């Protein structure tokens, strides 16, 4: 009897774990390849690092950090982005500003062929990243 109850309890735990939403972005790092349909600047790397609910990286000029949540294919990025405040050349600053705006507008994501696309609420691509 105890064995049956223990077995059922373990099976129940396994089923709950299988049904729990997974964070397919956790422990991944991505490099920007295009932003708003334009190629990323080649001389400065823009990165996304997803780790345990924290999104961090560099926008090509400054380091940043914020929280994120995933539910299915929905990606919610906290609008309160913490960032260093260094000044860089104008093209880099423009890209950094556009990158921050894309993060704030992100509502979903898609991974296909080793590319991560950040999407707005209408499903339009905001940015594309590679590993």
UniProtKB/TrEMBL annotation:
PROSITE patterns tied to this protein: PROKAR_LIPOPROTEIN (PS51257)
PANTHER family: HEAT SHOCK PROTEIN HSLJ
Species name: Longilinea arvoryzae
Signal peptide: 1-20
Ranges of residues in domain DUF306: 24-129
InterPro entries: DUF306_Meta_HslJ, HslJ-like_sf, Hsp_HslJ-like
UniProt keyword Signal present: yes
Record's protein name: Heat shock protein
Keyword terms, alphabetized: Signal, Stress response
């Amino acid at each position: 009897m105890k064995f049956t109850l223990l077995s059922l309890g373990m099976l129940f735990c396994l089923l709950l774990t299988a049904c729990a939403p997974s964070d397919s972005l956790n422990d991944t790092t991505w490099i920007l390849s295009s932003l708003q349909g334009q190629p990323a600047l080649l001389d400065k790397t823009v990165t996304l690092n997803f780790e345990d609910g924290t999104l961090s990286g560099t926008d090509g000029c400054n380091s940043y950090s914020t929280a994120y949540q995933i539910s299915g294919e929905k990606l919610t990025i906290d609008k309160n982005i913490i960032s260093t405040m260094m000044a860089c050349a104008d093209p880099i600053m423009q890209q950094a500003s556009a990158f921050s705006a894309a993060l704030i507008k992100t509502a979903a994501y898609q991974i296909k062929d080793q590319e991560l696309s950040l999407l707005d609420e209408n499903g339009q691509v905001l940015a594309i990243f590679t590993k």
